[in-house]
Amino acid sequence: MADSLFVVLKKIALSLGEEALGKIGTEMVVQVAPIMTDFEQSMKQIEGELLVLQAFIGQVSAQRVGDKAFDAWLDQVRDVAHEVEDIIDEYAYLTSQAALDTSSFFKRKFHQIKNFVAWQRFPSQISQVEARIQRLTEMRNRYDLSVGKQGKSSNLQLTNQLCMSDSAYLTDHSEIVGNVDEIGRLTEWLLEERQDRTLIAIFGMGGLGKTTIASTVYKDQKIKTSFDCHAWVVVSQTYQVEKLLREIINQLIGERASMPRGVMTMSRMRLVEVIQSHLQDRKYLIVLDDVWDKDAWLFLNYAFVRNSCGSKVLITTRRKDVSSLSEDSYVIELKTLKHADSWELFCKKAFRASKDNICPETIRSWANKIVAKCQGLPLAIVTIGSIMSYRGLEEQEWAFFYNQLSWQLANNPELSWVFNVLNLSLNDLPCYLRSCFLYCSLFPEDYKITRKLISKLWIAEGLVEDRGDGTTMEEVAECYLMELTQRSLLQVTERKACGRARTFLMHDLVREVTSIIAKKEKFGIAHGGAGTTQVAHGARRLCVQRGAQTLNSFSSSRLRSFILFDTEVPCSWVHDILSRFRLLRVLCLRFVNIEQVPDVVTELYNLRYIDFSYTKVKMIPASFRKLVNLQVLDLRCTYVEDLPMEITMLTNLRHLHVFLVHDLQLRSLNCLSATKIPGNICHLKNLQALQVVSANKDLVSQLGNLQLLRSLAIAEMRQSYIAELWNSLTKMPNLNRLLISMCNVKETLDLKTLKPLPNLTLFVLSGKLEGGLLPSIFSVKLKVLKLDWSSLKKDPVSSFSQMLNLVDLLLTGAYAGEQLTFCTTWFPNLKSLQLADMEHLSWIEIEDGTMMNLHVLLLAGLRNLKAVPEGIKYIRTLHEMFLTDMSNEFIIRLHGSDNHIVQHIPNINKFDSSDSQAVNNAIYLPWLAKKFGPGAIKYASINCGPSGS
């Protein structure tokens, strides 16, 4: 570290001249060196202190819920941890400035003198931090705030937590709405004549009514009389095995006279033996309510004997891994209530004093908004409905409550149950998952969080561990997402055709609770344009959803993530605001109205993630070379045509996306623009995704050095490059997504001598194939295959029929023949089929038993196809059919003589070739919105108009 400062001193001296260099070399360095040696040691110590502080905060954050004194003290500990992190990041910032500053003489001189002053502040900053840590230690001892000790308020909180399950057990079941099927199924399982002991699970997020449903069935007289004995125990997060076992014994044995002596002092193993002895020849029903981990069951399993008497054990849990303990799929996964059921339940509670529980018209709109906010969560509906039942029926009062719902959740004691039930899941998270989940709360209400986006953001923020062993951090992040879904904290809202999760959603009330926690802990703030115009001091992350220009205060030195969803702000505001965030790691300006990269961006040395996608940015400056920590550069759908050679110096880049979509329907050869990258890309060895790059002879050979690549899109290819390209691709063992597009329709591609790339799951090949023959390069692992303008002479369908994993098949201008045939048993997993722009195709044969899982069929530009393929009637799974630019005769027969073929398809959409905007609106813009958010629709509507250009 002293060496790094010496570099700074020399840079300053060089700017002043040789005489100053000599003076600094002899005098100043001698004076500063001992200080810097101490400083280096202090930095090592303080980095270690940060690790301990972060681990400490993660360990105790959930231990003392409700203890205000402890919360206040812990808040100051977080502040110190943030100060330490700031010092470390500031050091990295200053050393980078010294190494990279090549600006003008006077500007360089000014910055170096200013930075030298900043260097001088470090020792005093470290001393202040060390003093604060010492004072916090003394304060903890003074107020008896020892870690692990439960305060009175914490004990009360725990008692309340246990009472929640008890209260659900005591619910008046006559008021249950919805879940009729689930109750019926559970009753059937409990009554079925099966000799083996059966383990049944009810699984779902907190507040869905798992305990209520279990209690309804448990107390049913028909169920009770079917068992010799029964017991109900609440396990909870803080269970003690001995207490659980004693409670089970008390309920099973009941009478004092029959109770074994010394139960209160028995060891754990002896208690198990007592239960085993009692259950040995009995048919029993035991409910384990609110189970949080597998360990609880793994021990109790020994106590609940397998006695072949038809016994049943019922578990309620929020966690999918716990529910997976059940046998033979005896799992009921609860979902949120449908709107009709939610409304009925709310009215029963809110308007119970009125006849037939009718909502007055004057407040119906606000009542509907409140119900919608609950998003089908019974606990919230019942609790809020009960609160509103004794409020007035004035519109103003209901409007005020709705607008203050977030505050109500955090501060209204009557809503504490809702807050606490939802917060239990958050407090159960390990430290590494907790931070990741808090980050999700920054996104807007009902925002569909994409897997790829959130993974990159987590990695850029340093929230994902590097496990090594060939596992990428992106794969680790995906494991985090899956764990959050298994804990019922995130919901998978969309899956890719292959079944992989694409988007996730937070329940709105879970998001509200998590946002409150994130703000309280200074983790981050989501600014929605209403209420406060100031960002709380010390917030580390800021997501501006609306009303950006209403913000008038920032804690600039501490901000690490800045995500801007407000697309209405002027360029000047964006440029001004970024100048305050010099330690930023994440910058997301997707859809923002900017035409050039703000100058200050290249000064943000700590940046790991930059997203300018869907903006009007045209050029990336050469000064991007300064951003040596950059991991993600997202320039999708910008106007960048060339990247500076300096991009190849960013050796930490993991994802580089840069292209413009010219044709939203993806039916033209060059529908995606290719970007030129001059220079040598060999140093980008960490690159995992590169798209869409313009091919040249040097680049295709250099690609072989990027052995971590998993996704590659390369355009403007020529036949003379193909052998070298394939040689490079064979050096990428993890490559699973590949797009190759030829430079023009005349260039012929000869692939006959090439071997398949065995790990490809997606392959897009655009260009004319030599001799109209299909090469043998297609991997059996392919899930998505797109062939464009191949001019094949032989029906290619049979060649793909053995690809049992194929989910999407798209053929555009791929076949020059007259007939395509889909035979029985072919394509068992195909979900989507597109056939487009094959001018000679006049007949499509579809046999019964083919494509039995097809959901979507797209036919476009098949002018010579006059009749609707008869075999479509066999595909009963078809949900949507899109017809674009088809012949008049085809459309007439579709409505007339051939209508019986398609009458089972619920959605049939027809478009004329002149109405490409309608096609975009119906098919492609919704897809963009799902993938990139609603801003994509606005962007595409402006930049990809009716011409599709």
TrEMBL record:
Domain (Disease resistance R13L4/SHOC-2-like LRR): residue spans on this chain: 559-860
UniProt keyword Metal-binding present: no
Example GO BP: plant-type hypersensitive response
Record has Chloroplast as a keyword: no
Residues of the Disease resistance protein winged helix domain: 442-512
NB-ARC domain sequence ranges: 182-354
Gene3D superfamilies, A to Z: 1.20.5.4130, Helical domain of apoptotic protease-activating factors, P-loop containing nucleotide triphosphate hydrolases, Ribonuclease Inhibitor, Winged helix-like DNA-binding domain superfamily/Winged helix DNA-binding domain
Molecular functions (GO terms): ADP binding
Keywords: Coiled coil, Leucine-rich repeat, Nucleotide-binding, Plant defense, Repeat
Domain Disease resistance N-terminal: 27-102
Protein family (similarity comment): Belongs to the disease resistance NB-LRR family.
PANTHER family in the cross-refs: DISEASE RESISTANCE PROTEIN RP, OS07G0186500 PROTEIN
UniProt-recorded name of the protein: Uncharacterized protein
Species this protein is from: Miscanthus lutarioriparius
Source lineage: Eukaryota, Viridiplantae, Streptophyta, Embryophyta, Tracheophyta
